[in-house]
Amino acid sequence: MTDAAALAGRHLDLVSAPFTLPRSRVLVFRADDGEGVRVHTSEYERRLSDCRVLDALTVVDAGGEVLSVTEVHPARVTFGGVSTLTFADPSTLSIGPSSGSATAAGLRVRLRRPDGDVEEHPLDAGIRLRIAGDRAVSVDRGDHTAALAATEAIWTDWFAKCPIVRGDLQEMTAFCWWVLGANIVELPSLGDARAIVPSKIGYVGLWQWDAYFIAVGLRHGDPELAREQLDIAVRFPQHDGQLPDVVHELGVLATSDDLPESDRANLRRAGSQIADPTVPVPLTKPPLAAWALRKVLEVEDAPDYARTQLARIVRSQDWWFAGSDLDHDGMPEYGHPYSSGLDDSPIFDGPLPTAAPDLGAYLVRQDRELASLLERYEPSADVVRFRERAATTQELLLRMWDAERGRFLAFGGGEPQLSDTVVGLMPLLTGTLPAPIAETLRAAVDDPARFALPWGLPTVAASDPDFSDERMWRGPVWVNTSMLVAEGLEASGYPDRARELREQTVALVIHGGGPHEYFNPHTGQKARTATTAFGWSAALFIDLAVQLS
User: Fold this and answer.
1) Secondary structure, 3-state, 282-298
2) Single pTM value for the model
3) What's the CA gap between 387 and 373, in Å, rounded?
4) How far apart are CA 67 and CA 389, in angstroms?
């Protein structure tokens, strides 16, 4: 294995980071009782506890003593230094004696199935556990040495692409590169498509926004796979150009009709004044596709690919103005919290739909990105309309500025939402705010009572009544919002402050022990309910590490 693989292996604790294989739906965790491991599958919209394959897999020696896990590497889990577990293929585990082990005689593997049945098998040269789609396990013999070599080759090839960065960032970069490889799954409905999911622990699908952020980090080592993520995200537009929220193994999620009743109730809770909560509401994600496409193409140009994606992104951008301007004032709104990516933000505590300053900023940025990309790849295209629309949208965005409060406000059903949140900082991304407004936002980023917390930029200002340092989108630090604000600071003329925020963000991930979904801004540790080994956090750490190096 490469040095990068060894560095990544230091973080594979089988708790926050399971043992798995690119393209596999099999996950191996440390057993709850500390003896051996347990095996699950990774499935769309199913809890890990509902996807049990084996409640315990233990290796015992000739005297019946259970051997503990002594080492974890991307290619293998070692028990007692004398036996290893690896993959024979994406749906098959292989267990056998370690190569050259002199104490392997009499080793047995003990399996406890979810129904309580326990069985033992002698290891000898190795056995294989084939895991079917219904989670049933069949046991047969197999060449364990060959399985080890094949798995090692897969990870060697993957880590050969790991970006080389500054020395203090290299170990976490290697682990984050492992996270991206580990989160690759196949989507059977798309043939051999490789989707990097946010997490095999609970987020098994390709979310549109996640795909953009993942592609931005992935481009530094595997631009072809980065392009594939963007292609999947925009390949299935609705008839009017709207892009779906999620592409998953059963199809797409593009409307509230696809949601469970508990989620649909969000549309009724405040009595939307504009959107009819009894009819389907489109579900999508914020318009950052052209931003991500431009970044991916910077690393490796692909003109034919670019033209295909641009046609889809243009239709999506037009949809926002034609299909999501629900009060017909020229500024599109979020018709559902899920379409914002910040599902639980207090800006959605009021009526729906919600006009938000982050959406306005993204729309301005995307129209400008489209104009530049079309000039490069479609020289005959009329780009004037994109630049004119960007200018008009920015004028409407500036109407959200509350000079008395010194911040941008969101509006729910036309009513101002007074929560002081990170979405109010996103207009920095336009790079063309009036200087006094840009300076006021920069000061907010530096204010320890609001956004300058010990471990980074909270998603709700610490001084706001809605702030919680643990609740999703109501205070914890997210890598993606920190990265976007840093980019906005740079675009608005504050490159030194942008670099400081980037340095603070990578320091947070290292301090917190890995690329978690979100972090407590006071302790710098994983928030209690956050997912671990999270895709966009890993990808954006890599992107930041490359920039800082």
Assistant:
1) ECCCCCCHHHHHHHHHH
2) 0.96
3) 12
4) 66
